[in-house]
Amino acid sequence: MTTQLTHRAIVRRGRRSCVEERPTPTPGPGELLVAPEKVSLCGTDIQIVRGDRDDPSPIVGHEGATRVVEVGDGVTDFEVGDRVVVNPTHPHDSSFLLGHNVEGLFQQRVIIGAPAVSGGLVTPLTPELSSARATLVEPYAVVRYALSCLSYESPETLLIFGDGLIGNLAASLAPSVLFPTVRVVMVHRTELGMEWTANHFPSVVNSLATENWVRETTGSVAVLVATHRAGTVASIDTALERLGDRVVAVHPIGGVPAKATSDLLPGVDIAGVRQANTGGPTPPAITTFTRGALRVALTGNRGVTNHQLASAAAALKNADGAIDTLLTHQLGIDEGTALMNVICEKRTREVDGELVIRLVVNLTGH
């Protein structure tokens, strides 16, 4: 009698998540079975669990390192034991969006389908990069790509809406990707978020959304929108209303509602602009909006290339300890699931008086 192998998984049930035992699958032809090490909870994951998005996968998660534990027939580029990172966005096949429409990494075993393997979405990962830092590979690459898009306009100020991991990561990377003297201004939702950034990235100029942050900007301004999906268009409108023709570039790095538009950018399909840069092409597709003295270069992106992921991994391996401060909560699978539920149900990143910039869950069981 053969005993069915099982593994633990964080499964969403309604708007809550619970740890369940699930049958461990066997990879089919062209597939890989991987074991996630540590996986982080990103803003998109939270929106899916909350029901703010209609993505069907019962298991979210797309940011983390994994190890190959079984190889399907026909796979020749990978072996058992290889450490890899999986690019969650297939630029040419919408049927593969890891953690969105296929099961994600918040489980101890995951099948990576043949389209992703043959499509080159699985990239070797250096063993020297810690499991915790490896959860930053994808967001690091995405943020660096977004900043590179904004760099085409040589802004004097980078204005960031959103004070989660993406916003703070962008603030930390801006001097190296844009230029050393760029002024970074971050518009925060809460005082706790403002205090956290001020303590960890003292060069950033911080302001609450209710304050007059306009006076903190100088010269030409590039706007990076790193809010939740529902706040994207409102942030763009706020920047254009208050800064006018000083805004030279806009890049939504978070989600964009389908067919999103702005009355201040008539005729511009904001979601389409973002979609045009699926997979992080270089040079990026840039949509230019012009009205009178206002000329805005609009970009955005969904995902990046494997080369950009590999480059991000190399940079993270050599980064100083400041990068690790972004990973504020590292927990086991049971404790991590409990915190995930608090964040999702109470719709807050403030838990027990602390700000959860990024929750990292250890899937290895030790």
The whole-number mean of residue pLDDT values reads 94
What kind of sheet is the major sheet?
A: 7 strands, mixed
Helical stretch tally: 10
Task: Give the amount of beta strand, in percent.
Answer: 25-35%
Distance between the termini: 30 Å
Can you write the helix and strand succession as a string?
Answer: EEEHEEEHEHHEHEHEEHEHEEHEHEEE
Give unreliable regions as ranges: none
Number of strands: 18
Shape: globular
Query: Which radius of gyration do the C-alpha atoms yield?
Result: 20 Å
Please estimate the helix content.
25-40%
**Structural category:** alpha/beta
Features:
single chain, 366 residues, alpha/beta, seven-stranded mixed β-sheet, 18 strands, 27% helix
Can you walk through the features of this model?
This protein is an alpha/beta fold and 366 residues long. The mean pLDDT is 94. The chain is globular. α1 packs across α10 and α4 crosses α9. A hairpin with a 2-residue loop joins β13 and β14. It contains ten helices and 18 strands. Strands 3, 4, 5, 6, 7, 15 and 18 form a seven-stranded mixed β-sheet that branches.
Give me a quick take on this structure.
It is built from ten helices and 18 strands. By secondary structure, the protein is α/β, with parallel strands linked by helices.
